[in-house]
Write a structure and sequence with these properties.
This protein has 286 residues and is of the alpha/beta class. It has a single domain, classed as TIM Barrel. Helix content is 46%, strand content 16%. The protein has 12 helices and 11 strands. Strands 1, 2, 3, 10 and 11 form a 5-stranded parallel β-sheet that branches. Strand 4, helix 7 and strand 5 form a beta-alpha-beta unit. Helix 3 runs parallel beside helix 5 and helix 9 runs parallel beside helix 11. The longest helix has 20 residues.
Protein backbone atom coordinates (compact mmCIF):
# COMPACT_ATOMS: atom_id res chain seq x y z
CA UNK A 1 0.00 0.00 0.00
CA UNK A 2 1.43 3.38 -1.02
CA UNK A 3 1.87 6.05 1.63
CA UNK A 4 2.55 9.70 0.96
CA UNK A 5 3.09 11.70 4.13
CA UNK A 6 2.84 15.48 4.38
CA UNK A 7 4.24 17.47 7.30
CA UNK A 8 2.86 20.96 7.76
CA UNK A 9 5.41 22.87 9.82
CA UNK A 10 5.30 26.38 11.24
CA UNK A 11 8.34 28.40 12.30
CA UNK A 12 6.81 30.51 15.05
CA UNK A 13 9.52 33.16 15.20
CA UNK A 14 7.39 35.99 16.62
CA UNK A 15 9.88 38.86 17.18
CA UNK A 16 13.04 36.77 17.39
CA UNK A 17 13.90 36.74 13.69
CA UNK A 18 13.65 40.51 13.41
CA UNK A 19 15.60 41.18 16.60
CA UNK A 20 18.37 38.81 15.48
CA UNK A 21 18.73 40.93 12.33
CA UNK A 22 18.90 44.15 14.34
CA UNK A 23 15.40 45.20 13.27
CA UNK A 24 13.70 46.56 16.39
CA UNK A 25 11.67 49.60 15.36
CA UNK A 26 7.98 49.61 16.34
CA UNK A 27 6.63 48.79 12.89
CA UNK A 28 8.94 45.81 12.44
CA UNK A 29 8.12 44.53 15.92
CA UNK A 30 4.42 44.79 15.13
CA UNK A 31 4.93 42.57 12.07
CA UNK A 32 6.15 39.82 14.36
CA UNK A 33 3.40 40.42 16.88
CA UNK A 34 0.79 39.75 14.22
CA UNK A 35 1.28 36.03 14.84
CA UNK A 36 -0.64 36.41 18.12
CA UNK A 37 -3.70 37.17 15.98
CA UNK A 38 -2.99 34.31 13.60
CA UNK A 39 -2.21 31.39 15.93
CA UNK A 40 -5.83 30.75 17.03
CA UNK A 41 -6.91 30.80 13.38
CA UNK A 42 -4.21 28.31 12.43
CA UNK A 43 -5.10 26.00 15.30
CA UNK A 44 -8.77 26.19 14.28
CA UNK A 45 -7.95 25.43 10.62
CA UNK A 46 -5.81 22.43 11.52
CA UNK A 47 -8.49 21.14 13.89
CA UNK A 48 -11.13 21.46 11.17
CA UNK A 49 -9.20 18.97 9.04
CA UNK A 50 -7.97 16.84 11.97
CA UNK A 51 -4.33 17.60 11.18
CA UNK A 52 -1.46 17.53 13.66
CA UNK A 53 1.38 19.86 12.71
CA UNK A 54 4.84 20.72 14.03
CA UNK A 55 5.71 24.16 15.39
CA UNK A 56 9.41 25.04 15.48
CA UNK A 57 9.47 27.73 18.15
CA UNK A 58 12.42 29.70 19.51
CA UNK A 59 12.75 29.95 23.28
CA UNK A 60 12.54 33.72 22.87
CA UNK A 61 9.03 33.32 21.47
CA UNK A 62 7.98 30.91 24.21
CA UNK A 63 9.25 33.10 27.03
CA UNK A 64 8.01 36.37 25.48
CA UNK A 65 4.48 35.23 24.55
CA UNK A 66 3.58 31.92 26.20
CA UNK A 67 -0.10 32.71 25.60
CA UNK A 68 0.56 32.45 21.85
CA UNK A 69 2.29 29.07 22.18
CA UNK A 70 -0.13 27.39 24.59
CA UNK A 71 -2.99 27.00 22.05
CA UNK A 72 -1.06 24.67 19.76
CA UNK A 73 0.61 22.81 22.61
CA UNK A 74 -2.77 22.16 24.23
CA UNK A 75 -4.21 21.12 20.85
CA UNK A 76 -1.65 18.31 20.64
CA UNK A 77 0.66 19.71 17.99
CA UNK A 78 4.38 18.99 18.22
CA UNK A 79 6.57 21.69 19.77
CA UNK A 80 10.07 21.45 18.30
CA UNK A 81 13.35 23.32 18.79
CA UNK A 82 14.26 26.44 16.80
CA UNK A 83 17.05 27.92 18.89
CA UNK A 84 16.48 30.49 21.60
CA UNK A 85 17.44 33.79 19.96
CA UNK A 86 17.01 32.83 16.27
CA UNK A 87 20.69 33.49 15.65
CA UNK A 88 22.31 31.33 12.99
CA UNK A 89 24.32 28.46 14.54
CA UNK A 90 27.03 29.03 11.93
CA UNK A 91 27.55 32.51 13.42
CA UNK A 92 28.08 31.22 16.97
CA UNK A 93 30.90 29.60 18.87
CA UNK A 94 30.42 25.99 19.95
CA UNK A 95 29.71 27.17 23.52
CA UNK A 96 27.16 29.75 22.36
CA UNK A 97 25.41 27.21 20.16
CA UNK A 98 25.18 24.70 22.99
CA UNK A 99 23.75 27.39 25.25
CA UNK A 100 21.07 28.07 22.63
CA UNK A 101 20.12 24.38 22.54
CA UNK A 102 20.03 24.02 26.33
CA UNK A 103 18.14 27.25 26.95
CA UNK A 104 15.67 26.53 24.16
CA UNK A 105 14.97 23.07 25.55
CA UNK A 106 14.37 24.53 29.00
CA UNK A 107 11.76 26.88 27.56
CA UNK A 108 10.12 24.03 25.63
CA UNK A 109 9.97 21.78 28.68
CA UNK A 110 8.48 24.49 30.88
CA UNK A 111 5.52 25.00 28.57
CA UNK A 112 5.02 21.49 27.19
CA UNK A 113 6.36 19.14 29.86
CA UNK A 114 8.99 17.52 27.61
CA UNK A 115 12.11 18.52 25.78
CA UNK A 116 12.17 18.67 21.99
CA UNK A 117 12.64 15.62 19.79
CA UNK A 118 13.22 17.67 16.65
CA UNK A 119 15.25 20.72 15.66
CA UNK A 120 15.28 23.22 12.84
CA UNK A 121 18.12 25.70 12.53
CA UNK A 122 17.24 29.39 12.27
CA UNK A 123 17.66 30.26 8.59
CA UNK A 124 18.62 26.62 7.94
CA UNK A 125 22.35 27.14 8.48
CA UNK A 126 23.98 24.51 10.69
CA UNK A 127 27.49 24.86 12.08
CA UNK A 128 30.25 22.23 12.06
CA UNK A 129 29.23 21.47 15.67
CA UNK A 130 25.46 21.27 15.24
CA UNK A 131 24.98 17.55 14.59
CA UNK A 132 27.17 16.57 17.54
CA UNK A 133 25.43 19.00 19.90
CA UNK A 134 21.94 18.02 18.82
CA UNK A 135 22.65 14.37 19.51
CA UNK A 136 24.29 15.21 22.83
CA UNK A 137 21.09 16.91 23.97
CA UNK A 138 18.66 14.22 22.90
CA UNK A 139 17.45 15.58 19.58
CA UNK A 140 16.34 12.72 17.32
CA UNK A 141 15.78 14.52 14.02
CA UNK A 142 16.86 17.68 12.25
CA UNK A 143 15.01 19.61 9.56
CA UNK A 144 17.60 22.04 8.18
CA UNK A 145 19.28 20.30 5.24
CA UNK A 146 18.33 19.89 1.59
CA UNK A 147 19.94 16.66 0.39
CA UNK A 148 16.67 15.06 -0.72
CA UNK A 149 13.13 16.08 -1.50
CA UNK A 150 10.85 13.15 -0.60
CA UNK A 151 12.97 10.92 1.64
CA UNK A 152 14.79 11.18 4.96
CA UNK A 153 18.41 10.23 5.52
CA UNK A 154 20.96 10.15 8.32
CA UNK A 155 22.90 13.38 8.77
CA UNK A 156 26.69 13.33 8.47
CA UNK A 157 29.23 14.73 10.90
CA UNK A 158 32.69 15.92 9.88
CA UNK A 159 32.41 16.75 6.18
CA UNK A 160 35.54 18.40 4.78
CA UNK A 161 34.72 21.02 2.16
CA UNK A 162 37.79 22.82 0.83
CA UNK A 163 38.23 24.68 -2.43
CA UNK A 164 41.35 23.01 -3.80
CA UNK A 165 40.73 19.40 -2.70
CA UNK A 166 37.95 16.90 -3.42
CA UNK A 167 35.03 16.97 -1.03
CA UNK A 168 35.29 14.40 1.78
CA UNK A 169 32.07 13.10 3.32
CA UNK A 170 32.00 12.69 7.08
CA UNK A 171 30.64 9.77 9.04
CA UNK A 172 26.95 9.01 9.04
CA UNK A 173 25.27 9.62 12.41
CA UNK A 174 21.99 8.37 13.88
CA UNK A 175 20.38 11.82 13.61
CA UNK A 176 17.53 11.57 11.13
CA UNK A 177 17.51 14.38 8.58
CA UNK A 178 14.04 15.42 7.39
CA UNK A 179 14.91 17.70 4.47
CA UNK A 180 13.33 20.98 3.49
CA UNK A 181 13.49 23.44 0.57
CA UNK A 182 13.28 27.19 0.18
CA UNK A 183 10.82 26.57 -2.65
CA UNK A 184 8.37 25.05 -0.13
CA UNK A 185 8.77 27.88 2.39
CA UNK A 186 6.26 30.73 2.46
CA UNK A 187 8.81 33.36 3.55
CA UNK A 188 10.74 33.97 0.29
CA UNK A 189 7.53 33.84 -1.75
CA UNK A 190 5.49 36.26 0.34
CA UNK A 191 7.48 38.34 2.81
CA UNK A 192 8.51 41.82 1.70
CA UNK A 193 11.52 43.10 3.64
CA UNK A 194 13.96 45.99 3.45
CA UNK A 195 17.15 44.76 5.10
CA UNK A 196 19.73 46.83 7.01
CA UNK A 197 22.29 46.40 4.22
CA UNK A 198 19.96 48.19 1.81
CA UNK A 199 18.81 45.12 -0.10
CA UNK A 200 15.15 44.34 -0.61
CA UNK A 201 13.44 40.97 -0.50
CA UNK A 202 10.44 41.56 -2.79
CA UNK A 203 8.07 38.76 -1.73
CA UNK A 204 4.36 39.49 -2.29
CA UNK A 205 3.87 36.69 -4.82
CA UNK A 206 0.43 35.73 -6.04
CA UNK A 207 -0.81 33.07 -3.63
CA UNK A 208 -2.60 31.06 -6.31
CA UNK A 209 0.61 30.68 -8.29
CA UNK A 210 2.50 29.55 -5.19
CA UNK A 211 -0.31 27.09 -4.46
CA UNK A 212 0.20 25.53 -7.88
CA UNK A 213 3.90 25.03 -7.13
CA UNK A 214 3.15 23.51 -3.73
CA UNK A 215 0.59 21.07 -5.12
CA UNK A 216 2.80 20.05 -8.04
CA UNK A 217 5.63 19.13 -5.68
CA UNK A 218 3.29 16.71 -3.92
CA UNK A 219 1.98 15.30 -7.19
CA UNK A 220 5.53 14.73 -8.42
CA UNK A 221 6.34 12.85 -5.21
CA UNK A 222 3.51 10.40 -5.89
CA UNK A 223 4.98 9.79 -9.37
CA UNK A 224 8.66 9.35 -8.60
CA UNK A 225 8.17 7.63 -5.23
CA UNK A 226 4.91 5.73 -5.73
CA UNK A 227 5.32 3.55 -2.63
CA UNK A 228 6.43 5.95 0.09
CA UNK A 229 7.46 9.57 0.47
CA UNK A 230 7.55 12.43 2.99
CA UNK A 231 7.11 16.05 1.94
CA UNK A 232 7.62 18.99 4.31
CA UNK A 233 6.11 22.45 3.92
CA UNK A 234 7.36 25.39 5.98
CA UNK A 235 5.17 28.32 7.02
CA UNK A 236 5.53 31.29 9.35
CA UNK A 237 2.39 32.40 11.22
CA UNK A 238 2.94 36.10 10.61
CA UNK A 239 3.45 35.41 6.88
CA UNK A 240 0.88 32.73 6.02
CA UNK A 241 -1.65 34.37 8.34
CA UNK A 242 -2.80 37.06 5.91
CA UNK A 243 -6.31 36.38 4.63
CA UNK A 244 -5.59 35.39 1.02
CA UNK A 245 -2.71 33.18 2.16
CA UNK A 246 -4.83 31.45 4.80
CA UNK A 247 -7.29 30.68 2.05
CA UNK A 248 -4.44 29.33 -0.04
CA UNK A 249 -3.31 27.14 2.87
CA UNK A 250 -6.80 25.69 3.23
CA UNK A 251 -7.00 24.99 -0.50
CA UNK A 252 -3.58 23.31 -0.27
CA UNK A 253 -4.84 21.04 2.50
CA UNK A 254 -7.94 20.17 0.49
CA UNK A 255 -6.01 19.39 -2.68
CA UNK A 256 -3.44 17.27 -0.87
CA UNK A 257 -6.19 15.32 0.85
CA UNK A 258 -7.81 14.69 -2.53
CA UNK A 259 -4.42 13.33 -3.64
CA UNK A 260 -4.28 10.85 -0.76
CA UNK A 261 -1.89 12.68 1.55
CA UNK A 262 -1.48 11.55 5.16
CA UNK A 263 -0.80 14.49 7.47
CA UNK A 264 1.31 13.99 10.58
CA UNK A 265 3.85 15.67 12.81
CA UNK A 266 7.52 15.52 11.97
CA UNK A 267 8.17 13.26 14.93
CA UNK A 268 5.48 10.82 13.81
CA UNK A 269 6.78 10.87 10.23
CA UNK A 270 10.31 10.19 11.51
CA UNK A 271 9.08 7.09 13.32
CA UNK A 272 7.28 5.91 10.17
CA UNK A 273 10.48 6.33 8.17
CA UNK A 274 12.61 4.54 10.76
CA UNK A 275 10.17 1.63 10.98
CA UNK A 276 10.13 1.28 7.21
CA UNK A 277 13.94 1.40 7.03
CA UNK A 278 14.30 -1.20 9.79
CA UNK A 279 11.88 -3.49 7.97
CA UNK A 280 13.84 -3.11 4.75
CA UNK A 281 17.12 -3.86 6.56
CA UNK A 282 15.55 -6.95 8.13
CA UNK A 283 14.38 -8.26 4.77
CA UNK A 284 17.78 -7.61 3.21
CA UNK A 285 19.50 -9.53 6.01
CA UNK A 286 17.32 -12.64 5.59
Amino acid sequence: MSRHIVCLTFDHDHLSGFIARGLTTPTVISRGEYDVVVIPRLVSLLDRYNIKATFFTPGHTIDSTPHAVTPYVEAGHELAHHGWTHRLPASLSREEEEEEIVRGNESIKRISGRTARGYRSPAWDLSPHSIELLQKHGIQYDSSLMGHDYDCYFARQGDVAELMTPFVRGRETTLVEMPISWSLDDFPHFEYMRLPNGSVMPGLMNATNVLENFVDDYTYMTRVQPDFGILTYTFHPHVIGRGHRMMMLERLIQKLMEGGAEFMTMEAAMHEWLARRQQADKIAAE
